[in-house]
Design brief:
The protein is of the alpha+beta class. The protein is built from nine helices and 24 strands. It has helices spanning about 1-35, 45-65, 70-80, 150-230, 235-310, 340-345, 365-370, 385-390, 395-400; strands at about 85-90, 90-110, 110-115, 120-125, 125-130, 130, 140, 145-150, 310-315, 320-325, 330, 350-355, 360-365, 375-380, 405-410, 420-430, 440-460, 465, 475-485, 490-495, 495-500, 505-510, 515-520, 530-535. It has a six-stranded antiparallel β-barrel with strand order 2-13-16-15-14-17. A four-stranded antiparallel sheet has the order 3-12-10-7, with no helix packed on it. The chain has a four-stranded antiparallel sheet with strand order 9-8-4-11, with no helix packed on it. Helix 1 (about 1-35) runs antiparallel to helix 2.
Amino acid sequence: METKENNSKQEIEVNKIALTEEDKVTGKQVEHSTTEANKKRSPWPFLGLAMLAIVGGVVWKGFTVSQSPSSPEQLETAAAKASLPIRAVRAQLNPIEAWVFSNGEVSAVHFKHLTFQTAGTITYLKKIAERNLREGDLVRGGELLAKIDQRKLNADVTVAAAHQMEAKKGITNALADLQQAQASMEAEKANLVQAEQNLAKVKADLTKAKTNRNFAETDFIRYQELVAVGAMQRREMEVRETNFKDADADLEAANAGVRLAKSQVRAAQARVEAAQGQLLAAQTQVETAESGLRSASAQLDKSNVILEDTVLTAPFDGVVAYLNIREGDYWSPQVVRTNNYQDVVESVPIVIVDPNTLEVNLELPTFDGAKVSPRQTAYIVSDEDLSQASIKGLTNENLVELAKAKGEVFAVNPAVTPGGRAVNTRIRITEGQENLKVGERVSAWIAVAFNPQAVVVPRGSLVIRDKPNGMASQRQAYAFVVNETDNTVEQRPVELGIEGLAYQEIKAGVREGELVVTEGKNRLVDRSPVQLVGTANSK
């Protein structure tokens, strides 16, 4: 206290001296200016200004002396005033996951749009406990759910069946004629073979007859010569003449037999050709009959298909998701609207879904889609629950707690959608199907990376600044680590790892247990003095 009073008195006295000297100088300047205005200016004004500067320096020195602390307690107080208040947490070793997020829609893996393919009045709708079928009802595969008036179609089926029966009878008759023609063909072929064999035989007889005739002729001529010279009796010559005439007659007979056999062969060949013609005609008749049967069968099948199109049956065990018909309504295929999927499900007669196999369809940005692959774990959260959790702060723990269902990535489209420039992804639900509804909008969180032992700090604990002597585009993440010995901070460059929901992995630059600034970091530089006002442990 005495030191402060002495300093104050010294300051007042110096100020008084300064004012007195200033007045004297000012008075001399006025007097000199009035008496010697036309004379050359005196150097005294410059001397006055110099004296004034000296007096100001003395005053400033006294002021600084009076303001500077003169004790260790005052030095500590001044240092405390210069320290920046901060909050910090300790880096800890914890598991961390990286997530990819997008909104999607729940759909059934197995579903069927049931619709009539023909127009008509709905004459039947399934009854359950004496009431008509409605949305939410369970149905069994193969159950008849609805049908259209079938009387005209039943008549068409009857007519088509009759035509098929006639065609079958025509085939039977044609096949009988074909078999008869084939038998006749075989018989005529056998006759031809026999005629050819007979011709071969008579040709052999003709050859023999020629040989016999030539021998008889030679023998007769020889005996004629012997008789002429008297060496043989005439009776022997006459015998040889008779033998020659008989051989000649046999030769004529053999020629006649050959001619007859040849005519028989030609007749047999003609009959074979005729039988072949009958066989071809029978085959054509069979083909015509078969074509008629195919046509009649096709007409019958068509009628049966049209008849089947008048009934709706459950394709599998499932639930009625949409029901847009009533018994007595007139149905026409033109009723179905195809502008968008919502119009489809609201206009087809019945939609059946399997509630036990659900999936979520979503579109991911291209840069996120590259991180996703099949079999990665995914959590499904409702938008309402996600909004409430985001207010309090979303973490791995409460994300898992909020999840209505769990699944895994089933398929990732390798192509990018032309319009949205996104990657279509399907998540197959493995747990919690009962908590989801088809068509519901949900949020899907996919775990794309995991480190079970990572040094983590809360997100937002780091600052991004330009690298020293670097371009503006060269940015570096830094952490301010508290030196608990002298209450200063060290600005450290860090290597980033997985970015989780609430925490960031530090791969290099910060060690487990070190105190990292979380609040007040933007005012800090390397070696800044700090005052710690709060700490917490990262999780």
